[in-house]
Write a structure and sequence with these properties.
Blueprint lengths: L4 E8 L7 E4 L10 E6 L2 E15 H4 L8 E2 L2 H27 L5 E7 L5 E7 L7 H11 L2 E6 L2 H8 L10 H4 L9 H6 L6 H4 L14 H7 L9 E4 L2 E9 L4 E6 L4 E6 L3 H6 L5
Parallel strand pairs: 7-8
Antiparallel strand pairs: 1-2, 1-4, 3-4, 3-5, 6-7, 9-10, 10-11, 11-12
Helix pairs in contact: 2-3
Protein name: PSP1 C-terminal domain-containing protein
Pfam families: PSP1 (PF04468)
């Protein structure tokens, strides 16, 4: 089967949003250019972050349309006006939500390019009946209103924060999508299971737990788990600690409680992982 390819540009509509792919339109388009494109929201402005790049249609996963044009001076003026109006829309939404007693954290607002629609992003700990709010906003701005509730991880991504490491959180610095983070990752990496130490500003497990997890899984493959009992030099021994970096295991000989530090590989490793180095 022939895998047809297309020369495309990757465009983000908002900072670190999922990348959308578009074909060129004959203009000299470069990374960093602001372009006008059609999205499921309507006519919108995006920033070119990839390309030109050759991808198969299977890799893209949808029918590719073309970039309409690079923003000219008039477009740029309108784009800046839209951003100013969006800030006002956010302020008005905050005021009206407070007047209606709605438990909402208004995070951001933006206009599509032709100002026919306003998207307002908010966070909340409960479901919110915002029908009256939508009516009030539609009357105020004479546009269609979409109120979009986002999860707590996306909320931190949008407003930004400082992580426990002292750097800007990964989600607001470079992550475009969230991976599934599980407690097993912290256990695999031999971290102390202290929720405060392994949770991000969003209160969920830190995204960075996924970065080194594959390394630990590979290094600890076929190595006995801490707390397990194995046979060492024909006598039973309990595994006290495992150090993946130093490639050593601390054992405690059960019959005399004698601690023994063993470098990998040793007999248990060779027996249970014959292909291991």
């Amino acid at each position: 089967m022939i895998n047809l390819k297309a020369l495309v540009y990757g465009v983000e509509i908002t900072k670190l949003s999922p990348i959308l792919y578009y074909a060129g339109n004959g203009e000299d388009i470069k990374i960093g250019d602001l372009v006008l494109v059609n999205t499921d929201m309507g006519l919108d402005v995006g920033k070119v972050v990839i390309g030109p790049k050759e991808l198969t249609f299977e890799e893209i996963g949808y029918e590719v349309t073309s970039i309409l044009r690079k923003l000219d001076d008039d477009d740029l003026k309108k784009y800046e006006e839209n951003k100013k109006m969006a800030r006002k829309a956010k302020e008005v939404t905050e005021i009206k939500a407070k007047e209606l007693g709605l438990p909402m954290r208004i995070l951001s607002a933006r206009f599509v390019f032709d100002r026919s629609k306003i998207i307002v992003y908010f966070g909340s700990d409960t479901r919110v009946d915002f029908r009256e709010l939508v009516k009030g906003l539609a009357k105020e701005f004479k546009a269609r209103i979409e109120l979009r509730q986002i999860g707590i991880r996306d909320e931190v991504k949008m407003i930004g924060a400082i992580g426990l490491c002292g750097q800007i959180t990964c989600c607001s610095r470079f992550l475009r999508k969230f991976d599934s983070i599980k407690m097993e990752m912290a256990k695999t990496q031999q971290m102390l299971i202290n929720t405060a130490k392994i949770s991000g500003r969003c209160g969920r497990l830190m995204c960075c737990l996924a970065y080194e997890n594959e390394f630990y899984e590979n290094e600890l493959k076929c190595i006995p788990n801490e707390g397990s009992t194995i046979e060492y030099e024909n006598v039973p021994a309990r595994v006290i600690t495992v150090n993946a970096f130093l490639k050593q295991v601390t054992l405690q000989i059960i019959e005399n409680n004698q601690p023994v530090m063993v470098k990998l590989p040793f007999e248990y490793f060779k027996k249970n992982c014959p292909l291991g180095d």
